[in-house]
Structures are given as C-alpha cells and as structure tokens.
C-alpha cells in the first residue's frame, strides 16, 4: 500500500493532482498516479491553458477543428472537454470502488450534537434528533 493509499484509508483524505495535461493522459502518467493513490484531478482554465500552451499535443486537434470552421473559442473548449473526459475515464474506477464510509457515532451535548468515526469521514454535524 502506498503512502497516498494509506492517507485515504486511514485518514479519509483524498489526494488530488493539480496539473491535468494531455501528456499525462497519453503516456499513462495519470493512470500510474491513480494506481498509486491519487483520487482526483484539478482542472481549471488556467491549468488547462498552461497545458495547451506548453505542449504540442494539442496542435493537430486544434488545427483540424479550426480548419473545419470551428471558432477558436469553441475549438479551445473541445480540447478542454476531451482532456476532462479522458481524466474522468482514468478516474472512474476510483469512484466505482469507493468504499462506503463507516457509520458515525453521535453523542449529544447540552448545546450541540457531534458525530465522529474511527476513520473516514472527518467529524461532522449530526442531524437533529427526532424526539
């Protein structure tokens, strides 16, 4: 078990990659990171713009889309959606195999109720009692 897998298993923390690139999708890097315990990927316009600007992996698709008459903004979004869909495909098994969190134990205090469990998820507020 890797440190990232233990982090999730023991502490309920889901490590994410803050750098989605097409290269990671094509060369299997994202798949290896997910196998090692990464449970999500951050994708925002800045990250995706840097990925597109910093790699020629997007050039052929972009040129084809523009040559077909797609406006530049639409072609950009086609690139983005393709990468996000690819990342979702790699991450899908993580979601499909996500274990259910253990049941929480609730305690009642004079002014508040709190829940806790031995592992995931971290303490949270319990629903009000039905009396």
CA gyration radius, whole angstroms: 21 Å
Largest sheet: 3 strands, antiparallel
Which structural class best describes the helix and strand composition?
mainly alpha
Number of individual domains: 2
Question: Total number of helical segments?
Answer: 6
- What is the 3D shape? elongated
* Largest beta sheet: strand ordering: 3-4-5
Number of strands: 5
Give the N-to-C terminal Cα separation.
45 Å
Explain briefly what this protein structure is.
The protein contains six helices and five strands; from the N terminus they run H-E-H-H-E-H-H-H-E-E-E. The chain has 131 residues and is mostly helical. The protein folds into two domains: 3-96, no CATH class; 102-131, no CATH class.
Q: Can you describe what's shown?
A:
With about 130 residues, the chain is mainly alpha-helical. The chain folds into two domains: about 5-95, no CATH class; about 100-130, no CATH class. The protein contains six helices and five strands, in the order H-E-H-H-E-H-H-H-E-E-E. It has helices at about 5-10, 20-25, 30-35, 45-55, 60-65, 70-95, and strands spanning about 15, 40, 105-110, 115, 125. The strands form two sheets. It has a three-stranded antiparallel β-sheet with strand order 3-4-5, with no helix packed on it. Strands 1-2 form a two-stranded parallel ribbon. A hairpin with a 4-residue loop joins strand 3 and strand 4 (about 115). The longest helix is centred in the middle third of the chain and has 25 residues, at about 70-95. Residues about 100-105 and about 110-125 have low confidence and may be disordered.
């Amino acid at each position: 078990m890797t440190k990232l897998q233990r982090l999730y298993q023991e502490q309920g923390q889901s490590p994410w990659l803050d750098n989605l690139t097409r290269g990671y999708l094509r060369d299997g890097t994202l798949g290896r990171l997910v196998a090692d315990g990464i449970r999500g990927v951050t994708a925002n316009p800045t990250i995706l713009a840097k990925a597109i600007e910093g790699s020629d992996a997007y050039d052929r698709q972009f040129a084809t889309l523009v040559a077909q008459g797609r406006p530049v903004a639409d072609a950009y979004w086609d690139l983005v959606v393709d990468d996000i869909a690819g990342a979702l495909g790699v991450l899908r098994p993580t979601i499909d195999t996500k274990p259910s969190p253990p049941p929480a134990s609730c305690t009642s205090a004079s002014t508040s109720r709190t829940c806790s469990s031995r592992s995931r998820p971290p303490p949270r507020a319990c629903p009000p009692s039905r009396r």
